[in-house]
Design goal:
By secondary structure, the chain is of the alpha+beta class. It has a single domain, classed as Glutaredoxin (3-Layer(aba) Sandwich), CATH 3.40.30.10. The protein is built from 4 helices and 6 strands. Helix 1 links the parallel strand 3 and strand 4.
Length: 159
């Protein structure tokens, strides 16, 4: 795969979504979980989305159950939790693996393009964030403890 736009992922509703649908958008791609200490970041992500989506930002949420089994729910439960507790209106996708032999190809690509600290490629925990510019280039990676509001300036630079 040469570009982020070459990937497809399943929505929470089970539909295949080609990431090429997000061409010319700035993307913030986040692995999420409903029962994590970082789960309140959904509120900050939704605030960013509401504030910057009109300027071209799209946030893509990818639930993952690989870290402390903190995303045990079905797609329906995940969607209901996100909507009811945080009013999430940005696109959410079906649960995936982000590490290991069954890692979603999108996440293999993201990790190859933006390794973590000291070149490590594995995702360390829920709410790791990848920033993708309008041309599909993965331009930054943010640790789980980095709050969404703390990366607003980085997002605005690529908008």
């Amino acid at each position: 795969m040469a570009s982020i736009y070459d990937f497809t992922a399943k929505s929470l509703q089970g539909k295949d979504i080609a990431l090429s649908a997000y061409k010319d958008k700035v993307l913030l791609i986040v692995n999420t979980a409903s029962k994590c200490g970082f789960t309140p970041q959904y509120a900050g992500l939704e605030t960013l989305y509401e504030k910057l989506s009109g300027k071209g930002l799209t946030i893509l949420g990818f639930p993952c159950n690989q870290f402390g089994q903190q995303e045990p729910g079905s797609p329906e439960e995940i969607g209901a939790f996100c909507q009811m507790n945080y009013g999430v209106s940005f696109p959410m996708f079906d649960k995936i693996d982000v590490n290991g032999p069954k890692a979603h190809p999108l996440y293999q690509f993201l990790k190859d393009q933006q390794p973590g600290v000291l070149g490590t490629k594995n995702i360390k925990w829920n709410f790791t964030k990848f920033l993708v510019d309008k041309s599909g280039n993965v331009v930054d990676r943010f640790a789980p403890m980095t709050k969404p509001e703390d990366i607003e300036k980085s997002i605005e630079k690529v908008l």
